[in-house]
Amino acid sequence: MTAETTPPIATREHTVEGFVREFLRELNFGQGVDLTRASVNDKYLAMARTVRHYLMTRWLSTLRSQAKLQAKSVAYLSAEFLLGRQLDNALLASGLEDIVKEGLASLGIDLEELRQAEIEPGLGNGGLGRLAACFIDSLATMNVPSIGYGIRYEYGIFKQTFVDGWQVEKPDDWLRLGSPWEFPHPEAAVKVGFGGHVEQYQDDDGVVKRRWVPGWSVLGVPYNYMVPGYDAGRVNTLRLWSARATRAFDLEIFNSGDYAEAVRAQTFAENISKVLYPEDSTPQGKELRLQQQYFFVACSIKDFVDQVLPADFDLHKLPDRIVFQLNDTHPVIAVPELMRVLVDEKGWEWDEAWAVTKQCFAYTCHTLLPEALEVWPVELLGRLLPRHLEIIYRINDEFLAELRVAYPNDELRVRRMSIIAEYPVRAVRMAYLATVAGTKVNGVAELHSQLLRDKVLDDFAAYWPDKFTNVTNGVTPRRFVKLSNPGLSGLITEAIGDGWVTDLDQLKGLEPLADDAEFRRRFREIKYANKQRLAGVLAERDNIVVNPDTLFDVMVKRLHEYKRQTLKLLHIVSLYEKITTGELAIGDVTPRTFAFGAKAAPGYVMAKQIIGLINAVGRTINDDPALEGRLRVAFPANYNVTLAETLIPAADLSEQISLAGKEASGTGNMKFMLNGALTIGTDDGANVEIRQLVGDENFFLFGLTEPQVAEVVERGYHPSAYYETNLDLRNALDLIASGAFSGGDRAVFEPIVSNLLNEDRFLALADFQAYVDAQARVDAAYADTDDWTRRAVLNVARGGFFSSDRSMRDYIERIWHTYPVAPEA
Ligand code: 26W
């Protein structure tokens, strides 16, 4: 098959008629139904498959040019990809929105109804997973050759329901109605081993070698997803792996009547990609979690080396063709896996293999919580992956030997930096392994990266100062402005053209319009329309009534004590306490809607308690007729990407109130800024850079800084002292303790109150007064509606830096050293 004879890739007509023809063909021949009898899901699946046909041309030409070009690619290894719904993004990328809307309408079909039929693939917990999704969107839009590798969980992040205000998890069976955006390739399945032992043998030249003899194995079946660039030729690939048994079914055992045993291997294997671990900070250290990590990493490396690279590729040049970006420590087992492939399978010498391996990886750390850094007991790792443990030991031995040369009489430092921790149990510190093997280590915001250098990985930063860098997070403006806020997008494009969608710095052009009364009026109008839209969604989705004529004060993120949803609660309870005691006249209270969205890891008891208290306080306030239309708490269940797309454009105030030094970056903060909300926040994570760019006068800063927190903790923190000295705080805590929000039952929320009074690990009480004072500044600012709008416009205008496109440019420049390649026309 020569170039000139290479068959052209089929194309589709970008016309209403063309689309309708395709759609009906897909509905009749693909879905096997005719329009008169088609269900909403039939129509949705047919429409989705039709839209993907339009992207296929670009996907196939991308893949074709990829194979031809020797370009360096980025392999983004992530245990999570929080993609959100795919249809809108596919319509945007294919420029089909209007054609599809008109085409469907001509068939009497409402696009909105089909949009609502799509089930969101919740293959992630929160920040880390969503960031991965934003990044692959930017890489495609910027024409950078890259591939995302992850796991196709059969069950994603649990569906959150509230029963009497308490979180109850339901399985997320997201595939039950079909998944039109994936392309399974069982023929490209990869075999992955587990367990077993390592044996020594002599190769043909009599050289003593070691090889792994797995005890059992599974198959990894790849499912490809399109990652369409916006207004770019490129459609990159996201490859998610699903586990299958190597032997489907043991007929002998079946015929012997032991049916369960016959399928045991099957179920056992499939368990590996069955469900996403719903933790987003405290690893449970479960064996299945490690199986999941090794499974997708082994599949991905084998896939890239054997499938993506040309068969005759010299792996010594691997670093010129690929950089494996490690999205936190979850995929770090990839380092010993590549060593195993090069030494055991390709027969390379150790040094030869290490010289290449240590040029192929880079590591991004996404946390500051010591408990979130994964460590795997050598007992478990040695049992599941005996050869990998051997390899990790050797990497560590050589590293410690190197350190002893650099620090001859500082055995303590050497011990401190060892990849192997000796206590409380002998375990592998995955963050240390990633740092030793990675070409670069980066944090996700300036402050975070500094704290990694100064505190978390300080010994390593001292030894390898150039290895440490920063890349501040970003978000994709396609999904989080263009798609989720069409009103604002239209206003921006009218004012400065639509170049901003792929070059967000152009938002700067809006600055002068902050002083334009007519522009402000339209900006406010759009915000109000977004608030009405949210009100409609909450009424229909959760039976929650909110009043758009109130300040929308929004806090949406995972429930975690360091994010301090309790501090937000203390503000609300204090306000309520003052109103009920008459200290505050309801007329003097700025009408507010306190909106929350938050899932708690199922095993995180305190987090679930806090959810219970938020709903209890909400019920009390919402049932109080005196507060009707003035104060309301809205806590829709099951916060996810889809709900965020409606909530964030409606917000006036963005709550980013974590304890300084705890939130690595935050990305919700960026989405709120770009959608014209003002931030009330601490100097934590990317809040610092938001405040620097938007200006102090357009940001409500409060609270202890990270150095001050360190000092308070150093000195010894006594939360009860704040209780004793701050009357408002005491009244608020006493009201909770009194059972006022739990039908007089004091026991229900006692754990929260006593934790705050006796431990308060994240200094909520210490920052209470500063927070309440900042909220008073918010009230004052909001009273001047037009000036508030001016500040909101400046937040949008100065938010360009927080595009994930800019983050990608930083990764390319500082870490990946790859470059955009436009696929062949
Ligand atoms: C093993 C358990 C586990 C699972 C996930 C530990 C830690 C994680 C993630 C690293 C947690 C996470 O999502 N971190 C968030 O990452 C975002 C993207 O960089 C940041 O913006 C957030 O600040 C950070 O909390």
TrEMBL record:
Q: Which GO terms describe its cellular component?
A: cytoplasm
Entries under PANTHER family matching the protein: GLYCOGEN PHOSPHORYLASE (PTHR11468), GLYCOGEN PHOSPHORYLASE, LIVER FORM (PTHR11468:SF3)
Read off the PROSITE patterns from this record. Answer: PHOSPHORYLASE
Gene3D superfamilies documented for this protein: Glycogen Phosphorylase B (3.40.50.2000)
NCBIfam families from the entry? Answer: P_ylase
* GO molecular-function term, one example from the UniProt record: glycogen phosphorylase activity
Q: What is this protein called?
A: Alpha-1,4 glucan phosphorylase
Instruction: Specify whether Transferase is a keyword of the entry.
Output: yes
Span-the-membrane segments of this chain are none
